[in-house]
Amino acid sequence: MDDEELIEAARDVQSEAYVPYSEYRVGAALETADGEVYVGCNLENANYSNSLHAEEVAVAEALKDGHREFAVVAVSSGNRDAVTPCGMCRQTLAEFCDEDFRVLCDAGEDGIREHRLGDLLPETIGPETLGK
C-alpha cells in the first residue's frame, strides 16, 4: 500500500473510535513486513489511563494474527493536525520495530509528515536495557 492509501485507511477507521470524553478521534494503519494492513482507533474509558490508543489497537490486531515485523504506520486524527504517536505507543512500536521504522502523520492539506521511530523515541528501552 502506498503512503496515501495508508493515511486514508487511518482516516477511515476513525469512524469506529469511541471518544465520548475527548471527542478526539485517532486512527492508525499499520503495514506488516509482508504487506498486510491492520487498523486501529482510539477507545476511551472514563478512567483515561485504561483507554486504548489507535496504534496499540492496530499492533494488537497484527500480533494476534502472528505478525512480528512491521514496515510503516500511518496516524491520523480528525483534526488532521499531524499528530504523532504518544510516548507509550512509541515504546510499543519500538518493541517490534527498529529506529528506521517509518511513522507517517496526517497533516491534512499540508500533506504527510514522515518521521523515523528512532527520532521520535531516542534511546528506547529494549531487551538490552533489561540485560536480555
Automatic annotation (TrEMBL):
Organism: Halorubellus litoreus
GO terms of biological process kind: nucleobase-containing small molecule metabolic process; pyrimidine-containing compound metabolic process
Signal peptide region: none
Lineage: Archaea, Methanobacteriati, Methanobacteriota, Stenosarchaea group, Halobacteria
Top EC class of this enzyme: hydrolase
Keywords for this protein: Hydrolase, Metal-binding, Zinc
Boundaries of every CMP/dCMP-type deaminase domain copy: 1-128
Residues holding Zn(2+): 86, 89
UniProt cross-references to InterPro entries, sorted A to Z: APOBEC/CMP_deaminase_Zn-bd, CMP_dCMP_dom, Cyt/Deoxycyt_deaminase, Cyt_deam_tetra, Cytidine_deaminase-like
Cofactor entry: Zn(2+)
Protein's UniProt name: cytidine deaminase
One cellular component term from this protein's GO annotations in UniProt: cytoplasm
Reactions catalysed, as given in the entry: cytidine + H2O + H(+) = uridine + NH4(+)
Annotated substrate binding sites: 42-48
NCBIfam families the UniProt entry points to: cyt_deam_tetra, PRK05578.1
Family statement: Belongs to the cytidine and deoxycytidylate deaminase family.
